[in-house]
Structures are given as structure tokens and as C-alpha cells.
């Protein structure tokens, strides 16, 4: 017994000392100038085309409440076709009240998300109907996997925010499962998250539950927001009722909205990048105008999700050169309007393989060089967003950390220039034992979690596992290391009571 | 029989129509401003530190001929320690004669490599002792694999130049195998290549054989170079005799030299990036001074290969954030001296897996953002350069093509803005059938070779192959599609005669 106990204790000690290495928590900033793929004239030409789309073609809005708001603001509204045409003046007015930066504060204020300026945030994948890992295979989304995936998001510091549902828990009733996912987000993590804004009810529930978790009234919460949502426009040029209502509900309550047209070139938008960007710009700004009409000053983000399809099959593609260019160019547009920028990496790969890695890395560079403030779907995205992958999540954490480390400025001073060491080490010698090295070696370099730097023989001897196989071990280890953040019992009870009450209210009806 | 024949003919027709898609041949330019990670002051501080290294500590040069050259130029030479100390004046003088751009013309002038300015070139991996593919496993380098790998380099347009030996053909005598590899380079490809400059003989043979292939005298060839080499400094601060002789031989003959310190932070250079860059700068400039002393105006490149080691094991790492930063910052240094820039991506992965992809993509972005003119080791690099991988070569071609496509400027004009199409397609509709799409769809987007964009079910049905498995099929297909470039019989005979003569001359001795 004693021996058993001491062995377990030794195991624990070792587990502590061999925890998965990761970057410390904190606000990540991009200190370098954003990349520009478009000239100023080209930005203006795209802006002008988007204004002509709004003025001439208009946007269909399937919400009477939204139509009335636009009408009151002086827009031209065709009620038969539910089409709203707005002029540049209305756009400019909205841009005067939209903030260029804001914060989202979750229940742990240490996890406050800064949106705007030079700050970058990375979120979990959102929306997949399926889940995959290499041990259990592919399966429908479910609450247990949902919980494990948000635990992983909590565990890894580089994921500063959850997205909308990391997978759909399809075994739960569709009209109330958002309550279960919000509850999981709030109890298993202390990070900010995206609420589902498909209709008023789901948005309100997310707002109410975060307010409870923070101990705030809805009024106080409106002045100090803590949740956001993605409004995925039904491109081309349509806001459906649920999305419009969701957007308005969020804005009414002072919560943030990222208006994100899903402009797949060749399918939902022109086959040309300039045309797709013009359309994206028109649709994103239109949603931002609506938010500002609801509540001037409501926090908003310029959302971009422009990629292309495979023109032979119509299948969506991600992490392509076109997607990457769009990520950079969209940042130029967002900055033209002084709006925070939501960007998106991605991959169409059906496996957490080399394609998954190079496509994601490609689009991730676009998002970073374009100064994305919120890099959405950044961890766990597989199969073009149809599957949340445990292994891909680990690979993505590695890639995000590579970027975070790349963005740390290079220091140049006498100590870093190391002339003393350069004079000490003989020609053809080595720096391993030099005091300059010994003082710094343990923290000098980024320590990866997935990358294996063993030589071939040692790697083969240890099993010859590829990066995907190592990722399987890592997500399991991360779940073991995961610690549930403390929540005061009364808060938890209040959340449970809210969920129970709302579940009963919703019944078989609409949320 | 007839049927058999017609089926084969049908197969051939299909094979032709389903060739591996790839970008057309041509000069790739990077039209965007280079990224800057260092401020101007930081660049100057690194420059100044490197000058102090050259002035105070000096460089060991194990070649009496080189020592004499430096002495004649006014450098301080300590013969006992073979140490050369040079002052800034000598560096500045050399930089006045070193060209900022030049061309390397192989036997096919259509394949001329432009080195400098905004042009980017990508080469095959160079130097691995081993070869790997997923069907035949890992094995020692050999001539048959060498030949297949250079055939692949010939086949893929994005590889604009071979490197030095893509693998060592170890079954051949070490003192004459360079003749066999040059012969393979010259007959199986019509692209430029790197000669091995380990000593005078190997360099001279490469120069002579390219001159024969182009039908030029050595004098004419010196005025219109066609080969280059990498001078890998024995960092810290040592040029061995073979490298110094190789460098001087190349410069004498007007051929190009990329002086490339291999500065692995923590091992051959300080553990700090600023220190490693200062050392790299000193060593690279020192080699460039030597080339200019031999022949003012000799084409040279500023070579950078700064990465870090795993401080727990001392193992080299590549494609790390540090490597990526060094790739960007080294470009700033090269441009300070108006020198063409040789950069390097890489990966430590032992497999053509997700790690191989994300590490390579990471460092590749650094090379491109840093405006590398020659991106060395860009295709086939595995195991930190110890193995040439057939699958990795295919994945790398895909990644290089992604970058090439990313660098194509975005066009913005009325046709590209597609306002007519945007007005035609109804809200919530799609652009698939619109004339604007139909006119452009076949060429609108980059067509990948490895990436699979099928949905999960179709992919699974087709075998569920991951990117690495697909890469195996692709290199085999590429070898089938490969066409040997025509060479006039007299040229081939002259090359054969040169090889035979030199093999006899060398015998059991030194080349």
C-alpha cells in the first residue's frame, strides 16, 4: 500500500514536471506593420464598388423590425422584395459611432479579450456537425466531445476565446441545446465565447448567462460586454430573419457582433477576388450599419471569410492562395474603416495531415499579416469546417504558438549581440558551454509541443510516430492536465436555475 | 491485340489530359515590400557588431593562397593562427564591386536564373546522405535516386535551379562522384545548378562541364556565368582550405558564390538571435570580400542559414520561429549591402508529415517575406537535411506554388469588380452559372497538385489517402510524365569525354 501510494505520488511529480510545454497566457500583439496587397487606389475602388452595391442593388433583409429601422434612418426600402438600399452617408454615419477597439470580459477578468489595434486573438473552430479523433474515428457532434473540446480550449493559453459551438451536440434537442453549450462554456472554461445569434432567444440566453456568471445586471453588462457573435450573411446580399434578429438583439444589449459574409468565390460571390471583396465589403458594412442603428456605439467587427471553390466540383476550398490573399486584403479594408478585423484560416483536408497543416499555415499567415484581431476557427478546423478534430486542434495550437513566437520582437543590445561570447569561443568551436549560452539556454528558444527534433534513429526507436500520431497522445495528456476553473457555488446554482427555467419555457417551441 | 492497343492508346490520351497540374515556367517576382523585423538602428547595431568581429576577433582562413590575398589587400594576418582581421574599409570596397544582381544561364537560355532584385528562385534540397520514399523506405544516397530526383526538379517548373548534390551517390568513389552528378544535372535537366566547391578540382569540373554544355570557352563563360556554389562557413569564424579554395576558384572564373554561414544558435553561434546575426553577417561579408579580392565584380550572394538547436539535446531545429525571424531579418541585412539574398526554409521532421509541412511553410514565409532571391533547399528537405524525400519534394512543390500564386498581384478593374454579375445574381442565389463566372472559371483559381478538396464521403470512398500517400502517387506520375531535354550528340559526347578524362586523371587521388 505504502509503495503503491509513493509510486502514485512519484507519477504525479513526474506528470507535473513533464507537462505539455506551452506559451504563457497573455495578450498577443502584432508589432509589425500590416501587409498591403492592394494599393490605396485599389482599396478605394473596392470601397466604391461596394457602395454602389449598397446604393443600387441593395440587400434583402427578411426582418420587419430591421426594415423599419432602416426606413426610419432614411434608407430606401422596397417592402415587396424586402430590399434595403442605403447610401454612403448612412455608412459614414455608422462608422462614426462604431468603436475601433473594445474589450470582451468573461467571468475571469484575467481572460479579458482585447479586440482591435494590434492585438490578435485565436478561437476554437465553431459550428462543425461532426467530431473526429484518430482513436475513435468520425462521429456526430455530441455534448461529451463538446465538453472535452472546450476543456482543451481552456487548457491552451494561445486560444484566448471560444467560438460558437465547437461541435453541435446533436443528441440534444435543437431548440435548447444552446443552453447546454453555454453552460459548458461557462463552467468548464473561464474564457469569453461566441453566442449563437440564430434568432433572438439564443442570443438573449447567451447574454443573460454570461451576465449571471459575471454577477452583472443586463444594463451593467451592456456597458462592459463579454460575449460576441458571428453574423454569417446569406451571401449574396441577404440577411435572413434569424440572423438579423440575432444581430439586433446583440447590439441592443451592447454585445459585440462580427458581421461575416461567407463569400466563396465562384459560388456565393464573383469568381474574381476584387468582386468578392466588393461584395464582402458591402455586406459587412451593411450589417455594421444595422448594429449602429440599433445602438450607436455597439461593438462590431469587420468579418471576412472569402475563399474559393473547386470549380470542377463546386466544393469549398480553404487555405488556398486566394483565401490567403483575401485575408490580407480584407485587413486593409477593415482598417480603412477603423474597424476591428475578424479573419479566418482554414483547410479542406479530410485528415489532420500535411495538407491540413500547409493549408492552415498558409491562411494563418494571411490572417496575421492582415492584422486580424480575431482569428476565428483557428483551432480544430477540419474538412472545411464540417468536423472538429482533436488532433488538428493540437496541430493548430502548435502553429498558433509558432506565430505568437514569431511576433515577439527581436532584441538588439550589447547582451544580445554577445560580442564577449563571440570573442571567447574559438574558431570552429561551439557555444554550448559558454556562460552567455548557459545563462539563457533554458528559455532562449520556443519549445514546441508537437514538433519532434530527434534524429531519425532515436525517433524510429521511440516508435516512429508522425506528428498526427503524437497529437493523439497530446490531446489526451492535455485533458489529463486540464483543471476546471473554480466557480462559486451560488453562481453555478444561478446558472443551473436559469437553464432549467429556460428549458421549461422553451419546451417544444422556439427558443 | 487491336483492342489491347486501342486501350493502351486511350490510356495514353487520358494520361496526357490528366497530367499533374502545375504553374507555367517563368520568372517569379515578389512585388510587395519586404517585411522588416529590425529597425534601421537595429540593422546598424548588428552591422557594427559584425564589423567589430572582423576587426577585433578575425576569421581563421586555412588557405595560404587566401591569406596572401588578404595580406596584399592590407588586412592584418596572423600566420601562426591563420587569422585574418579586416577593417570596414576593406568591406566597403568589396561591396562597391559586388553586383546587386546577376544572371545564371544554363544550357537552355530559357531557364536563365535571375538572382537579385525582386526575383525569387527555389532549388532542390542539397547534400543529404540519405534518400527516402514511402514505398522503398530509407536508404543511402545513390545515383539512381539522384537521377530521379533531378528528373523531378526538371519536371516541376517552380524549381528554377538544382542545388548541390540532391543526395550523395555513396556507391560511387568519393573523389570522382561529382563528375557523375554534374553529368546527370546536365543531361537529365537543362536547368542551372550548384557545383560542389569542396576544393579547387570539383569546382573547376563543374565550371568546365557547364561551359562545354553551353559551347563556351572558360573566358566567355566567366563573362556570362551559369553555375553557383554554396560556401558553408565552418562557423564560428573559420574558412577551411577546401572551402576557401572552392570560393576562390569560382570567383576566378566569374561564377557565383553564395557565402552561407551555418549559424545554429546555441551551437555554432550565440544563443541570441542578434548575436547569431552579427556572426552570420561577419562571416558572410568576409567571404564576399575574399571573392571580390580574387575578381572584383564576381557575382556573390549574401547567404543566411541561421536556426536554433534543441537546447536539451543539441539537435538542430529548422522551420522554428527563430529560423523564420532570421530569414526575414537576414534579408534586411542583405539589402543593407545591396547584395542578392540566399535564404533557407527547412524542417527537422523525420517524416513527410504535418510537422514537415508546418515547419517548412513557416520558414518559407520567412524566406519570401524577407525577399530571398534564392530559396535554397526548398524542395525535398527532410530530417534536418539528412534525407532527400520524394514525398516531401512533392509537398514542397505544392507549398512553393502556393507562395508563387500568393505573390500574383490582385487585379482591380471594372471586369474584376464584377458589378454587372453582382447585380444579375439574385439575393441568396449563386454565381456558378453567371456569364462572368463561366468566362473565367477554368483559370480563376490556383489548381493544386496534392490538396484534396473532396468531401469526406467521396474522399473516403476513393481510399481515404492522406496528403503524404497522395504524394507517393504524384512523384511516380511525375517521373512518368518527365521528358528528358534534348541535347545535341556532340555536346553529350564532349561531356562524356571530359568525364572520362577527368576520371582517369583523378584516379585514386584528389579531384
UniProtKB/TrEMBL annotation, chains A, B:
Q: What does the entry give for GO biological process? A: methanogenesis; methylation
Keywords for this protein: Methyltransferase, Transferase
UniProt-recorded Gene Ontology molecular function terms: methyltransferase activity
User: According to the UniProt entry, what is the EC number of this protein?
Assistant: 2.1.1.-
Region of interest: Disordered: 1-30
* Superkingdom of origin organism: Bacteria
Record-linked Pfam families: MTTB
Q: What class of enzyme is it?
A: transferase
Family per similarity comment: Belongs to the trimethylamine methyltransferase family.
Q: What is this protein called?
A: Methyltransferase
Organism of origin is Kumtagia ephedrae
Q: What is the lineage of its organism?
A: Bacteria, Pseudomonadati, Pseudomonadota, Alphaproteobacteria, Hyphomicrobiales
